[in-house]
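User: Structure please.
Assistant: Input sequence and predicted structure:
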Amino acid sequence: MDGRSVGAEGRGVVVAPRERLAGLLGGAKTAGAFSARLEVPAASLNLEVAGVGPVRLPLRAPQAKRLISVSRPALFGKGEETLDDTSVRDTWQISPDQLSLGDPSWSSLLSGALEHFRDALGLPAATRLWAEPHAMLVYGKGQFFLPHQDSEKDDAMVGTLVLSLPSAHTGGELVIEHAGQECAYRASKTDLTLVAFYADCRHEVTPVRSGYRVTLTFNLMAAPGTSTELSGPPAELAHSLEQHFGSPVTPRYGSRESDPPNRLVYLLDHEYTQRGLSWERLKGADAGRAALLRAAAEQAGCESVLALAEVKETWDAYPEGDDPWDDYGYDDDGEGGDAGADGDYVLQELVDDEITLGWWTGPDGTGGEQISLRVDDYEVCASTASADLTPYDSQYEGYMGNYGNTLDRWYRRAAVVVWPRERAFVARGEAGSGWALEKLRVGIARGDLHRARERALSLAPFWKHTRPQRELLGCALQVAAGLEAAETAAMLLEPFQASALGPECAGALSAAAERYGTAWTRRVVEVWFASAHRLDSQHYQWTERLPELCTALRARRAPAVARLLADGVWAAVDRDLRLWTTTRSADIRRAQLRQLALPLRCVLAAADAEQRDGIAAALREYRDTVLECLMPMLRSAEEALPAAEWGAAGLDVIARDCADRLRVVCERAPRAADDWSVAWTGCGCELCGALGAFLGSRSRRVLEWPLAKEGRRHVHTGIDSAELPVFHQTRRQGCPYTLVLTKTEDLFTRERTVRRQAAADLAWLMPPRNG
């Protein structure tokens, strides 16, 4: 969505209904700013600080120093961390339990000030604000706080209130920014200065140049009122909604019209957290606009929810002051621009955008659900373009030959999402929603099977592309079993992965398998293990639940299902074993093979006797590097299983096979002291042939090889990738330079290390473990 054209109406321009709607909302009465200021007499405040006593105003330097003596360095939050970094925040902090603000005149003054800020910030008249003390902050000369954004510390928190005590100082301005606008506030030298602003506004305290800046900060909390005032033309908005949901659309990159959209996503201006997002706690212009849109949706026969959106925009851009045609935007090093910093860039054309909804409320505004829904450009509108807001992250890519000179910006925005009531099931189901599955389950339980089938089938066009949360698989299996429609049931299960399975799924999975048969079950399980769903090192942790799941399935007379799941896991493990046992790099190979120890042990415990015999036979065919998986697997099994259960799990057979391999290694004659031969085969080229001849020689230790640059690079790669015990360096004399190869003592030390490890492993495997 190119936000710059939102709401634009002009001669010869066809304005989409959603853009007209955004224009109507943008022009509606939405009084309110993102920040506001108020000055009141200093005599209204009687403040005492523990360890200091009464604070006299205006504040003088000696008393400021006494305040510092009872304070500590201020911390700040970054993500989930609390940090102490004076390069980001340099100030002193006094906790609220050290402060006393009990004077009745202050309570009366604060009450009036909060009413003023409620109106100035554009909150509904029925909203009740209150302020909870957060801290006293003391800034001395040179101290500051870099641009940041306050975290909402409570569901009811909507903003921050800063009370500046009067003092003679310079610098220390409070600078607040939102939607491309900026306000700078200076404290009075004689009066109390109060500034309130929304929590999602970025703000900073500039360095104090002289004197002391002392403030009291409060969390600004809001309680919803009993009514919401509406203004503007809801009837016209409702008409725009009806047109939006009744008009075919043409996707941005398509040439053919598609069906009318299932939803409208109207982006709000402010940021919110999941806890703080509700109809009653919307900020500024958002409150009035959302109320209007919600009322219009009701009038048009639609439902509406609040959602959190992630917006990414890619702009054609170049750094301010640069000529975009000068060397196509290359930096001196040819590596493009500064990544990760927004900086000052000239935006030209919007190249692309992505908008994803990650969470939304229920239609009544309560509850909430984690979702993942990519929305199309023809579903989205906004009264304020994202480009006019402040991104939370950005990255510039300079010109790189056939791409670049682009600036990626990421924003977090809230949204009102609207859909017609008759399309509610599809609109919510497309988000991979547990709500849709629960509706189907309840419908089946009530006996409304026909409607449940129709609803389930309506999900088919998009369901396989959704990303339902793994904990929904149990419900999906119940619905699949109850639908009595094999193809529709398989469609509902397709987006899930095998790693979502657990023992709790055994009953529903066995019921579905019994209803639709083995062929149907095999097809479903194969999809769960298909390449798009394949197990990786992260998902392998799931296999710890596989033995219990297979036991539960057999107890429910579904051994064929247990067998299919064990086969699926073994196929994934077998594929990775074949890959990593042939990897030349020892460090990489060992790390990867150790990761396969857990799923291998679990699939052996889950398999039946015939499957275990097949797995043991397959393992015998691997080269000896498979020991780097099998020995960690057996050692971990010793901790997990009593020795008496090794036979039932097939571990005793594998242990005997490992012992046979290890004996061969231990009984192998040691390398002769004068045998410098190395077995190696390269890619088959002439260079690899010459290198192989040198490596295979028992007596030659050094090779001096005049070789051009590309030849030297090829030989280096062969030696390093195979981790050969050969030191290589280039003698930069003559033409071409000479590559000097020297076999190292690693040839002998590696063999001794392998022999010692084999002996230790063999001693560990001796009776009673392997009989």
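Confidence is low (pLDDT under 50) at residues 1-14, 226-232, 325-341.
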